[in-house]
Input
Amino acid sequence: SNLFGKDEIESILTDCRALAKKEMKGFIDTSDNLMKFFFDRVRNNLHLVLCMSPVGETLAGRARKFPGLINCTTVDWFLPWPTEGLNNVAEKFITDFPMDTAADTKVALMSHMAAVHSMVQSATLEYFEKYRRNVYITPKSYLSFLKSYQNLYEEKHKAIKVLADKINNGLTKLLEAQEDVSKMKIELAGSEIILAEAAKKSAELLKEITAGTAAAEKTKTSVKVIADTANEKARLIGGEKEEVERDLEAAKPALVEAEAALNAIRPEDIKSLKAYKNPPVVIKIIFDGVLLLRRRPVLKCQMVEEKSTLCYKDNYSVSVTMMNESSFLSDLQNFAKESITDEDIELLSPYVENPLFTTEAASKASGLAVGLCKWVKAMFTYHCIAKVVIPKMDALRLKEHELSVAQRKLANANSELQAAQDLLDEMQMKFDSAMAEKQRLQEETDLTKKRMDAANALIYGLAGEKLRWTAQSADFAAEISRLVGDCAMASAFMSYCGPFNKTFRDKLLHEYFVHSMETRDINFTKNLSVIDMLTNDAIRGEWNLQGLPTDDLSIQNGILTTRASRYPIMVDPQGQGLSWTRDKEAPCGLKETSFADKGFRSILEDCLSSGKPLLIANVEEELDPVLDAILDKMFVKRGKQAVIMLGDKECDVDADHFTLFVTSRLPNPHFTPELSARVTIIDFTVTMRGLEDQLLSRVVLQEKPELQEERRKLLEEVNEYKKRIMELQDDLLFRLANCSGSLLDDPEIIDVLNITK
Output
């Protein structure tokens, strides 16, 4: 009753009143009765279970101080799980777990797993008797063993399958490449024959084209001579023609003016002229000129005096008769001026040269006679000019005829040249087509040769890999069948062997575990190296650069530190594990602290939330209880964020990146079974080989620091080369497996092969 205050008691009684009345008929509602009901209910329903380890002095000391722990409790001493129980637990994990093996092998594997746990439990007693070191194996270690087996088997099985697919695809591609090479040899031989025929055909065409070109050039030369002659004639004739046209152009204004004057005369005007019985002398002279031009009969030219004016005897009566002709005007307008002769001009000259034969005199006599005057004068002028021009025109027509003959000859020559050029173009087209075909065949042949050379280089370069891959491909099925036992040994090593030294680890691995699998006919790799199975040269080289010695125990400890499912506690009296962890995790932002550090809690929370690795150094045999939830990985998902309870405080945690490392300087710590169940204890006690490496490094660093620096650089280069080789091999396999089409069409594979070699 001293557990609760008065206010708490009142609240309890109020809560119990309704329950008491409901469960107890005739219940008398008093404080004492309600308290009695509450105590009876607690006594009947409260079950308290105390779990304590019998190891050490803790339980004995508590029993002495609190006898009620023994007198008032029922003691249930949990002994180690029996074999049947271990088998049942293994069945829960293994029965439905997909494995590439027979059912009876699974049964044998489950039996082996139970036996491993029992053997390690027995081995801890032997280890204590021999080395006085306490190692505790708990059921949680067994559960970790089973879970590690599942993860490791799934990882290795998937890796083997992927590698098998890559290698088998790569081998298939190599066989296809060999077949392609055989085909290409046949194709190349045929291509060379076709190429030789194409070259022969091209040579014949070239010979024909050469001859045709020579003939065409000869024709071209002769055509050029003809063309030059014709052009020269055309040039000369053009000049002469221009001169004739200029001379004719001089008479053209008078002709135009005469035609205009004639066109202006109307039949009525002619009638008016005919009305004159005795027209002026100038009109008579003009009409005489018209009669002469039209070659009408006229009187002999005689000088007479008329109206006090000397003039020629007129023929006006004939002129009147002429004017009476209906076609008089049209005949004048259409007069053939080219028919005028020198005799006509000779007869006409006295009249035209008469002082009265002018347009001014004609206009005074009658405006109607001006047109006829102009026409007669124009005809006279035209013939005087044409007399000089016509011989030139005749000569011009002759030369134009010669020019037309020359042009016809040139046209014929051009036709011959065009025919020759057309034939030459046709031959050139055939030649170009033949050369294009030859070029195509040459390119195909060169490509085939190039592909064949690449194929030969590829096949030759991968000859060693082909043998190794062929052997490896044949061994994949056996490797998968051995994976059952190999993973059992490797996962048992990671779950159980950490606390033991090198001698005892080898004994467990190569005697106890091997004997158990051999008696149960579980297939496994003889002389299996867990180091080679769980790491590679690149990883080990990187660890060595970070300060981890090269001996097997140190490499095993590195595997346990990085691959174990539980956070590691390193038993590290020489500080080897501490130094390696610092160098290894420094690029990830490692933070180091200890339980004595005042800022321990804040550093812990910061590393949890930011996902940085945390190193707790120099612990004793017990850890701060605040770490219990972290060691058990009690991370709870809240949406996308994970949280964990640190005491009474909820803290965010980056569960994917956070890592915890714990080291202890104690040479032989006695960790409790509870702690052993939560962590992976790793014995980092330095071996003679590891000590030699450390001493050698320190001596060289002290005496010859430049050598130590050179050694470090060499180790870095070697490790980089190892990693590079692995990357190139993976890249080569990937390209071989994922190459679409023929390998010979992917030049990058040859480059990768050359780099890999």
